[in-house]
Amino acid sequence: MFSPGTKRRNLSSRTDRTSAPATQSDSPITPISAIRNPHLDNLVPNRPGTGTPAPWAPRLSVLARISPVNRSDKEDETDPVKPVYVGEFPQVVRDEQASLIQQFVTSGGSMSGGMDAKTSLAWIICRDKLFLWTYLLPVATMKCVVRELPKHILDSKDIGRNNNDHWLLSVVSWDSQSRSLRKSIKHQNSVGIIICNKKTGAVAYWPDIFSDGETAPVTCLTSSHEPAPISSFFDGKITSHRNQSMNRPRTFNSLIASAVPDSQYVCVALACSSNGQLWQYHCSPMGIQCTKVSQDICGLHSQEDGSSQYLVNDGYPRSLTWSRSRLQSDKFNRKFLLLTDHEIQCFCLKLFPDVQVSKLWSYEIVGTDNDLCIKKDLAGQKRIWPLDLQEDEEGAVITILVATLCKDRISSSSYIQYSLLTLQYKFGADIDASGDKRILEKKAPIQVIIPKARVENDDFLFSMRLRVGGKPSGSALILSGDGTATVSHYYRSSTLLYQFDLPYDAGKVLDASVLPSTEHGEGAWVVLTEKAGIWAIPVKAIVLGGVEPPERSLSRRGSSNERSVQDDTRSLNYSGNIASTRSFDVQDVVDRKKANMAGIAHRTARDEESEALLRQLFHDFLSSGQVNNSLEKLKNSGAFDREDETNVFTRMSKSIVDTLAKHWTTTRGAEILSMTVVSTQLMDKQQKHEKFLQFLALSKCHEELCLRQRNSLQIILEHGEKLAAMIQLRELQNTICQNRSTGLGSLTSNSETPMSGALWDLIQFVGERARRNTVLLMDRDNTEVFYSKVSELEEVFHCLDKQLDYVVSADESYVVQNQRACELSKACVTIMHAAVHYKNEHQLWYPPSEGLTPWYCQLVVRNGLWRIASLMLQLLNEVSELDMSAKSDLHCYLELLTEVLLEAHAGAVTAKAERGEKTESLLHEFWSRRDSLLSSLYQRIKDSVEAENKDFRGDLVEQKIESLRKHSSRLLSVAKQHECYSILWEICCDLNDPELLRKLMHESMGPKGGFSYFVFQKLHENKQFSKLLRLGEEFHEELLIFLKEHPELLWLHELFLHQFFSASDTLHGLALSESDGPVMAPEVGTEVESDHSNLELRLADRKRLLYLSKIALMAAGKNAEYESKLMRIEADAKILKLQEAILDIYHAVETEQQLDSELLHPDRLIQLCLKAKNPTLSLMAFDIFAWTSTSFRENHRKLLEECWKNVADQDDWNLLYQVSVAEGWSDEETIKNLRETTLFKASSRCYGDGATEVFGEEGFDVVLPLRQENLEGGSILKDCMGSVEAILMQHKHFPEAGKLMVTAIMLGVEDYDDRVENDPILMD
Known about the structure:
This protein is α+β, with helices and mostly antiparallel strands. Helix 23 (884-914) packs antiparallel against helix 24, helix 37 (1175-1187) runs parallel beside helix 42 (1238-1247) and helix 42 (1238-1247) packs across helix 47. The protein is elongated. Pfam families: Nucleoporin_N. GO terms for molecular function: structural constituent of nuclear pore. InterPro entries: Nucleoporin_Nup133/Nup155_N, Nup133-like, WD40/YVTN_repeat-like_dom_sf.
């Protein structure tokens, strides 16, 4: 396919080459070349008689690549650009192939084959038999189904028994989606198979091919083909080929099938043929209904005379595929896409009740608009073939393989250009709208795969198939009818090609698929070969081994063959060890991609030299016991430059623990479970790892790592932890298997064999995940991979977190669920205990642990432990079907699991805190899981105690307490260790043991009071205040921490300690507190208990608190702050009295809600006074200002000015002025009448001679002087707003009565209103 463009040989030369006698093959199983199609073979120059085409230089047989034993422990020696052997054919397939080879000379033969990505099934049709198996399973456990094809189909003259390469097959899985993942490592339980012959359209249907017993399929013979005039667009001209159509019958190009929901073994299949027909098959166990869809789907046009003949493009439609884009909510409707010669068509298939096909939309892919599609009629362009169509798994991107026939304008020679067109759904487009041709848009410019390639005929082009969805992301794989498979990877405007290449005895490539990923995402490419089994293409191989497509001048005759040999040589040179053998051509490509290669080929030559040196030094140490100045040598080689997993010491340690043993074999399958060689190999690894640690210590590399690479040293030692854990896990599995074989043990189930059980299934899941993530391990058994990949032990917990529903299925009985959950719990505990035990024994080897998170404290481990613990909690709390014995076992296992889970959380919190990171979310997760687990366990203990003493005769209370003390001792220790104070408190209360409570309070000290704080809090909630204070006498510091948040009790404790100054401050602050919550009203000589704890703090209570504060201050004695504190207390007491008086007057005037229980701020009190427009309240506003501070008056000067304006409005000054003039008041009469005004009273209270004695030196003069002349010079604006006189000047009556108003305020200064001192409101 991807051969360079060249001049085609003439027919005679091809005939001569074909008729040449076949030479003896190097391979013992190489079939005779007569079986190959000479027409296709002769199109490829220098091609051998069998096998994949390029490169065509001689090489070893494919059998040499499949070692009879597995690879060595040096995984790095694996060729990074070679495909990886995944699995062998089932033996029955091999036997049939061998039988077929013996008949090649007389009868000839061929094979069809394919792969299904969703079900991981592979199939081969060889002669008259269909072979179907799950290719991900090892050969030993592989179940291959063999079904014979119906004879009446094979006897057709159009098919023939040996022409088995003309079959289409579609798989219909009946398994529910929720169980599909679990079946991924097991056999498909229920699968329907539909096969269709490409030539005749004959269909066979097996409703359940995995059912026991061989059942004959349901068959249907499609009506014979209807030859039609075919229009061929070639060289820009349309010519009729009626005779050609008679010689070229129609072929079926594509087959898809879908299960009908809510029905048993009923499905609908669709097939398209090359003469423009779409066939519909309704398949059920009762029969197959075949219908030709009467839809003008391929641009077919009826003749003008009304005849039934059509004009169609030869070979179309090409491809059918289900559309996954925005799946409809109606499960009975499915959309599918159909590829024609110039457009994509979308149809809706109604599955129930009547099968109907309706067209939704079409999109032109070959047209005149270059922005929307492939532009046709370009210069040098002769013809365009859309060859295949695929949609990605998410249904977002559609990829189309396109071939274009072009003519070179210089040399006039023709060539074919291969390209990929990627389309995506337009944002907001209605994919269900009928006839919308703008539903799609180009995702990217057309990607040219091969600019110039050899001209091929139509049959060769139409044999090409496209696959998408593999790694690297965005790559595509192209299959060709001549047996090639090529991966195209687009990177930075450059297309890289990787050709799947096996030696000639591998046969053709039958199909390719994507390796199912255990997670959401893409998998590696897998390839089904004709004779060499199934192979995978690693991502590294595609990236490293990919080369740019050849693009060369077509005028140089013979350049193609020369270049092909050169390309082949380059591939061979580079296929060696990439570290030591570097081909200059491929290295240029790698250099251009070095930024992207950092994640794959990030190791430099210096790193490899360091690792090689370390390996050699360690080897010398093993043989001689000498280190030979290793530290200096390794320093000079840069061995200490890398960190973490990339450090050469870490890589060396990983290679030791992850060694794949040569003598483990996959051919024995599950028997590996009972092999002692597994344990022996693990012990050998442990001994070698211990030797490696000794080497690090003797060479002083350990000291260097401890100083410079703490994390790397931590990882090395964690490898030892995991190895020790794996050894113990292996011993556990052996024990479980022995118990099952003998029927002993609580975890034994009669329905489970030694090769089953929860732990066995978990091992299979973990091994399967490792195999899929690393295709180099695909030829290994799941169990072998699990016990080999020691450094990936965290995957056990990952699978528990993600796949526990499949290991412990809800479909099983609760008894089985309980057994399997306990088995998994024991495995987790075994792993954690072994790791911790190893760490304790090797504590001196570890670096300082500050900030380092152990592997068993990582998120994936914690989540896995919590997942199984949650399941056990559910079984313990919600399931009543379990008997007491089963629940007792479940409780014991859950208790052990809880300990390791909480240890993991505690370690994670500690490490995160040491790194200075935020721990709030982690702590809340820890606390939530801790409380849930321990509370459930304690409740189970109490239930068991009740059940034990149900029939007890005697002192039942004492018996219960003793039994509870015995059963809760372990839980008490765990709760104490992890500060689960609620459980500690509950146990102490249930045991009624105050001594235990005091002991725990002494032992559980913490930064915020520890358990003591919690106890005080519970006593406070229970309103046991006296008990709280008496208990606090033993825990002074802890009580003080608690009481700082509870001042209603703090002052009592301070009085008890004779801290009178502190008690005074506490009482003072409590009296002025603004909280509206319940507080304790202190009563002298009264036991403070629950009856008084809910009283609201009313004004009387606040005054009482202030009196107590004053008494405490007096008891403390005089000091430097005594006078100021006493004045402040008295001032606050006066303000409280003012509030009482104001509210009494206010509510007598205004009917509003009582505010007796609310402490009002002084500014709010003043506003109430102003709002009332009452003379008495207006004067009280000044009293409030007087008893506050100077800072308050300064901050509320505007409010003070409003008070003066308000008090000026309390008297009718205009009337006073008129009366004084009319009656002719004397000075004595004027003074007498002004003394009765509110303005005089306010001035006297604020500025009178006695005001200083009452309010202090810093009175109102500091904030607002009385007269203007008291102000120092300033602007007019300042004069207008700087004094009481200035405020009065703004009064409306000031022009007439201004003299009276000023006289009134001046009289107040000279004659202080002594009623202020005698006012009962302000008196104590």
